[in-house]
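Good morning,

Both structures are done.
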Amino acid sequence: MPKDEILQDGTERKHSPLRILVAEDNGINRFVIADFLERLGYRAEMAGNGREAVNACLKGDYDLIFMDCLMPEMDGYAATACIRLLEKKMDKRRVFISAMTADVMPGTREKCAVSGMDGCLSKPILLEPLKEMIETAISFAVGAPAPASAPDSGQQPPAQGVTGPTQTA
């Protein structure tokens, strides 16, 4: 569980116990999402590619994974499929996985769903859609029924959008 911090002004910053993994190969994107998560009161572990994300899931349990779709060594689609297989083989609970992608081509969101992802964030990542995806993941984790249609920011690609969950219970 993350420790709380005492800020310079003497106030205490609380951190959520939500266990988050971010799988992203781009350093700038990792910095941005870590900063946004910190602003929202969360901390995340980082993986630089899909293989590192799968290894992290072997070593620990997460409540939420933000998965870049295109990474070296193992892309997010393959990593998600591996994580889903590990969950079944190891009898682990299903973690909420949200894609992060700049790909706005038709079929991308469907490809995310087929690989086992539960939601999708468009890049560049923006604070409000990130917050909405976390709220969706928390609802998923506590067993709330999946909405009939995924939340959407209402913006059209290539603007930021949120969808999730892509799977139904």
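Second structure follows.
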Amino acid sequence: MPKADFDQRLRELQDDLLVLGSMVEKAIAKTLDALKRRDLEASRQVIQEDDAIDRQRFQLEDKCVELIATQQPVARDLRRLITILHISVELERMGDYAEGIGKISLMMGEEPPLKPLIDIPRMADKATEMAKPMTRWMLSTTRCIGNC
């Protein structure tokens, strides 16, 4: 595979990772909103949508492994692929936590929380903030592929 084709596939992987990050961010926001409003239907949707997050992660993994196996990248390219693999695992795990909150919300049903929801929204904000540097890194390295 010519280097230009490899670079294009690497850009596509980074784009796919940004999509995964967006899916997870939406899942976190949606599940917290559902928990606050006691919206059981929205909680069910978050639980169902977690399957799409899981599929996106496994597709990313498969594409990375295929590129590593067939192209034998080195140095910067290999580091980018390994980073994409690691980030996708962590994002998928964050999606699993959003799903877990959705399940807890369903178990609670219409009952109000025992105490005000203060810590969970704060933790979600922290998790979302932690994902932002990943997005900035992806956007900066996408411009650099094949040119640096």
